[in-house]
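User: I'll paste a sequence; please echo it back and then give the predicted structure.

Assistant: Echoing your sequence first, then the prediction.
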Amino acid sequence: MSSSRLRWVTGPRNQIWHDTWLWGSVALAGIMALPVLSLIGLGFGSAGDIWPHLIAHVIPAQLRTTVMLMLGVGVLCAITGTVTAWLVTFCQFPGRQLFGWALLLPLAMPTYLSAYSYADILDQAGPVFGFWSLVLPAHAYPRIHTLGGAIGVLSLVLYPYVFLSARAAFIQQSTVLIEAGRTLGLSPTACFWRIGLPLARPAIAVGVALVLMECLNDIGAVEHLGVQTLTIGVYDTWLVRGSLVGAAQMALMLLGFIALLTIVERTQRRARGYVGRQSRQRSLPRFMLGRTSALAAFSACLLPVLLGFVVPTSALITDALQQSLTPDVQRAATNSLTLAAIAALATTGLGLLLAYGARSSRIRAMRALVGFSALGYAVPGTVLAIGTMIALAGITNWTGGAILLGGTGFALIFAYTVRFLALAHGTLEAGFGRISMNMDMAARSLGTSRRHTLFRVHIYLLRPPVLAALLLVFVDVMKELPATLILRPFDFETLATLVYMRASLGQVEEAALPALMIIIVGLVPVVVTLLLLDTQTRSQPRVAQPNIVRNTVRTQPV
């Protein structure tokens, strides 16, 4: 070993054995990985006679259905999100500014609420079927309880993931390329296919990967619509077939899907260097659309908003107005608010410590440890819940029953923290990135420790990111269903589980009021996202455009 390398390892300022942030992150990463590690350990056990039955009769059909669901939702979300993002970014038509934020509204609608609402709207006892039967044959009426219905419902709710990613990429693209293409005679459509889409392809792939992860995580919508996916198979194998080992082995298959999607997402994220650099950007051009093109653009942006948010929310409001605030709903709301508040505080606090540890540590492995501890967001809630239950049961057995954690509120808080740590950490890491390292160096040169630098300097500067992390985690916990269904204590309901139980019993009208509460709370991250996107748009440099561009882009109808 060279002398410089030896000094790096043994020097007083960089001594690994005395780096408390490093070892704290190692311990935290191990704790956050306990559910997945426990699941893997159990998966190597013997499932008895159930696995041949699963291979012969269950897994092939569910695997095929899962792949078809992911393929259909991924394609529809990619088309809807990319086209609408291009229209509101580069085209001038009536309602463009309104659609810039309205297209994000489906983010407030959990997939299972949309499924419950559409199943009620399209029921054959409803007015839609009556109108259909007057105009068209009744046997041609579309059925919602099919794979196609599930693809449509999930796509209407999940497309904003692609919209956000694609629009951010379009905003960051070099305007010089668009101007050059228009100067050379390219139409707006040709600019989209030959310039905009190739440059934004990595960002679109990231959005689609997030959509596919949400598809794998969904349990409420697909179960209500009668679609048997691998996620449903994991749930049924444990609770219906009574085989926890078999459920763990099926969960490992889901983890394989997630690992593949994560690799694709990370690869595409590294490829986002294709997007134009900030220094070369100018004010975004706007393609003036003719009447027919403007009407088509308006319709293309209106339909996702109507079908993804307005229609299901209106149906829920109509049913909720006929309901009263019962004690069951009040208890469920109190439980949801309490769990969400505790989980938001715990998750944001851990995310803050991890983000600052990665910033202040000189050890390169620190970032890898932080990234490893924040992988829970990619794990489906059902898989995470089973892994959490196995880990907590192991702790109970190891202590001889002295510590009982399973089936308690602690199990829920722990699962929420593992699942949403990446969300809080990413928000806070972005906030730290806006603070100059010179402030850390100045504080350390005055003799301030890393701990005091965090609490005396950074906390004050990080108030907006901390608030955003708290709100985002709070809202996601309020909407979370799969992990809550498995880990909740006996006779303990949240708003999400109450809606699920009532909808499972066919009481969709009674589920409308708690469902509407979830949607109202879900609007919070939409507002936060809009503010962040508006800040990003305003940060673009504004440079006067040449006359040739103004003539060819702004005044020429399409």
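The chain has one domain: 20-282+292-554. Residues 20-282+292-554 form a domain with the MetI-like fold fold (CATH 1.10.3720.10).
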